[in-house]
Each structure stands twice: as structure tokens, then as C-alpha cells.
Design goal:
151 residues, mainly beta, Immunoglobulin-like, six-stranded mixed sheet, 1 helix, 10 strands, 13% helix, elongated, disordered N terminus, DUF4625 domain-containing protein
């Protein structure tokens, strides 16, 4: 009687292990985990956290970020921005956490500075995608609408 339960348990474990390996593909997989808010006053940092997986571990190429404003089309000039992903020693079936940070209307910041509308609150969203060393491009990740407050 216990043998069928044991076999069923083993089958479920094998199925779970097989499914979990599917997240490691040749094309980098970019998954947004969190954003540190929905509305940002002037001087605030915007922090986007991602999980990135890649079968070959060669994600050290480029990430693109595009800010798209609903309120101020002129605020979209200069986007998308391309950023070099720092070199590091990768490994097969790589999983890393990637942080992308901006500072909204800052005069000085260790992060890239972004601006919103001059006369009103900017409703916008961001798109992120990346390319690995082999030229494989991830799917595009799009955020929910964020507000850059004009105070």
C-alpha cells in the first residue's frame, strides 16, 4: 500500500524539479520583483528590483530602460537609455538580483537623474529589456503606471 504513495511522491518531486529548470533559457529572463513606490516626490529615489535568469550565465552586456510619459510627450526625449551591465564571472543556470535606480529631479545623486513634467505631475511607466553577450534579447518588462509628483 505504501509503494503507490512513495511513487506518487517521487513523481511529484521529479515534476517540480523539471518545471523549475524551465526558467533557465538561452534567452535571458527578466522578472520585475518590486518597485519602491507608486508616487515619487522631487528628490526621491526610484528603485526597481529584478530577478534575472540565464542558462549560459552571459548577461554581462546591455540593459535598456525606456520611460514613457502619458502626461508630457517631451519628457520621453532621450529614452530609451542603454546601460552596460557590469562584468562578473557568470555560471551556468545563473540567477541574480539586479537593482536599477534613478533619482527624480535631484541636483546631485549617485544614480542617473530623471525628470518629469515641468508644470504638472507626470504619469508614466517604464519598460526594461536586456541583451546577453551572445546577442539574445529578453522579453520586455513593463511597469504599472507611476507618478512623478510636481510639488
Amino acid at each position: 500500500m505504501k509503494l503507490p504513495y512513495l511513487l506518487a511522491t517521487i513523481a511529484v518531486c521529479v515534476l517540480m524539479a523539471t518545471c523549475s529548470k524551465d526558467k533557465y533559457t538561452t534567452k535571458p529572463q527578466l522578472e520585475l520583483q518590486s518597485i519602491n513606490g507608486e508616487a515619487f516626490p522631487s528628490g526621491a529615489n526610484l528603485s526597481f528590483k529584478f530577478d534575472v535568469t540565464d542558462k549560459e550565465g552571459d548577461i554581462q552586456d546591455t540593459m535598456w530602460v525606456q520611460k514613457i510619459s502619458y502626461s508630457c510627450p517631451d519628457a520621453n526625449v532621450g529614452w530609451p537609455g542603454a546601460y552596460k551591465i557590469p562584468d562578473f564571472t557568470g555560471s551556468k543556470n545563473l540567477k541574480v538580483e539586479l537593482d536599477v535606480n534613478y533619482c527624480y529631479n535631484c541636483s546631485v545623486s549617485p544614480y542617473p537623474i530623471i525628470s518629469g513634467c515641468e508644470q504638472r505631475t507626470d504619469s508614466c511607466y517604464f519598460k526594461f529589456w536586456m541583451k546577453d553577450k551572445a546577442g539574445n534579447v529578453s522579453d520586455t518588462v513593463t511597469t504599472a503606471t507611476l507618478k512623478l509628483l510636481n510639488e
